[in-house]
Amino acid sequence: MTPAHGGERRAGRRQAADPAPDRDPTFHQLRLFLLLVQERHFGRAAARAYLTQPAFSKQIRALESRLGAVLAERGGSGRFRLTAAGRGLIPCAEAALEARARMGALRGQDLPQRIRLGVIGGEAAMPYAQSVLRVLRARHPALEAEVRGVDFVEQIEALRDGTLDAAFLRLPLPAELDWVVLAREPRVVCLPADDPLAARSAVTLADLAQHTVADVPPQVPRAWWDHWTVDPRPDGTRVRYGVTVSDIEALLFAVAHQHVIAFVPAAARTLYPRPGLTYLDVSDAPPSIAVLAWPTARQGTPLLTALRAAAAAAAAENT
């Protein structure tokens, strides 16, 4: 046990010995406690909650203080042992969170009967999108989710004109949209299988400096495609563009047959295995960030409030 962990345990005991009976635990604290129970490790539970380990431990100590009981005996390297009070809290915490979810479903009975969701590329197949849809269905069983694929142009236009209520997209996005981050993953380059670099396992942006990159129609926000193509490159040089494509299938065809390359999320390796294509890691490319986005002007509606809550709950489950 390191001195930091020992101090953390002693602080936790001091706080737990001073109960605050007039303050009930928050749902957030109960959620974090159940994450700790699932992971059986402070560091892993903190990572799933997108918190630092000290911040996560502080929340658990605050929960102990509110309950007036020690829930976990801390050990070294983030490990712990549940106390009798901790074991007893598990069913209570689960019941409280389940009751809250049921109340949310009841509040959602006045929602419209359908929500229209867009997906770009293979986003609908990604685990985070599936989780959001599952949580939304569990909380609002009467709400039908209509999922529709969008191309590079439609992804913004369909939200702007109200054709879609929200969409699973990739950053960056215009300021007129708001979003919640669902996942981050590396970006890879898609090359023709006969490219001289194809035999390598990874490349840098400098290795790709002489390659022509697929372009998108002018209706697509330029900042979005410049981000994807890393234009300009770190040394200030501009990207040379080739054939224009408007969706992922056209993009992959262009790479295989029209002498261009493209940057795509790492998940494309699994989602789009195609003859004539090779995917390589790009060691110095920024990551790709998956989001659920909606028009900022409509974010206070009951429908989008329910969707945001479902997305937040799904993110807490899967991070």
UniProtKB/TrEMBL annotation:
Give any Pfam family that matches: HTH_1
Task: Give the residue ranges for region: Disordered.
Answer: 1-24
Top-level division of the source organism's lineage: Bacteria
Keywords on this record?
Answer: DNA-binding, Transcription, Transcription regulation
- Residue stretches making up the HTH lysR-type domain: 25-83
The record, for InterPro entries, names: LysR_HTH_N, LysR_subst-bd, WH-like_DNA-bd_sf, WH_DNA-bd_sf
Q: Please tell me whether the keyword DNA-binding is annotated for this protein.
A: yes
**Basic and acidic residues biased stretches:** 1-10
Similarity comment: family membership? Belongs to the LysR transcriptional regulatory family.
**Per its UniProt record, what PANTHER family does this chain match?**
HCA OPERON TRANSCRIPTIONAL ACTIVATOR HCAR (PTHR30346:SF0), TRANSCRIPTIONAL DUAL REGULATOR HCAR-RELATED (PTHR30346)
Instruction: Indicate what this protein is called per its UniProt record.
Output: LysR family transcriptional regulator
Q: Which organism is it from?
A: Streptomyces andamanensis
